[in-house]
Amino acid sequence: MDSFPEVEISNSENNSINTIGNTSVAGTSSSSSPTTLSRYENQKRRDWNTFGQYLKNHRPPLTLSRCSGAHVLEFLRYLDQFGKTKVHTPICPFYGIPNPPAPCPCPLRQAWGSLDALIGRLRAAYEENGGKSELNPFGARAVRLYLREVRDLQSKARGISYEKKKRKRLPPQPQQLTAAPPQPPPGEG
């Protein structure tokens, strides 16, 4: 794999990078838009621009229409070099310990939760920018399997469980019975 220049997360939003059909991948910002985007929408736009820049810098350059799950995996592995999460190797004395008492030479990686959220945003952005859901490379089986593998590896290495949180179910509320006024037993009254 060729070396790619470091990609800033806050790339300029004014340059168009790739297209799906006639839709711009790295949308252009317009000064006439009075609405402010939510934090999620801004992050999704930055992630989309970053991925578009990655495709542009790929050797050979890739168009989004030719991008596959394998390219998404390559992108995720590329992002690992900018990670800030210590992931212990099995030979590290701190393997499986959540808060190690001393530094170690284990590599820094992207945290699983960050990668999972990133893929979710990119998957949504792909479809919002004209991509067909059945062709979405961010939803490819290989990407889902990779994320599961990263989650499991980091869970063991860092001693942190990523169990799915069970939804709290509210206890059933006692039914309010509308009590009819007591009726005298038959034959009395």
Spell out the key features of this protein.
mainly alpha; 189 residues; 4 helices; two-stranded antiparallel sheet; 34% helix; 4 strands
Short recap of the structure:
The chain has helices spanning 39-57, 69-79, 112-128, 141-158; strands at 19-20, 23-24, 85-86, 108-109. The protein has 189 residues and is mainly alpha-helical.
Please provide a written account of the structure.
- The protein is mainly alpha-helical.
- It has four helices and four strands, in the order ββααββαα.
- The protein has helices spanning 39-57, 69-79, 112-128, 141-158, and strands spanning 19-20, 23-24, 85-86, 108-109.
- Strands 1-2 form a two-stranded antiparallel sheet. Strands 3-4 form a two-stranded antiparallel ribbon.
- A hairpin with a 2-residue loop joins β1 and β2.
- α1 packs across α3, α2 (69-79) packs parallel to α4 and α3 (112-128) runs antiparallel to α4 (141-158).
- The longest helix has 19 residues, at 39-57.
- The chain is flat and about 95 Å long.
- The termini are far apart.
- The model is unreliable at 1-31 (pLDDT under 50).
- InterPro entries: ALOG, ALOG_dom.
- This is ALOG domain-containing protein.
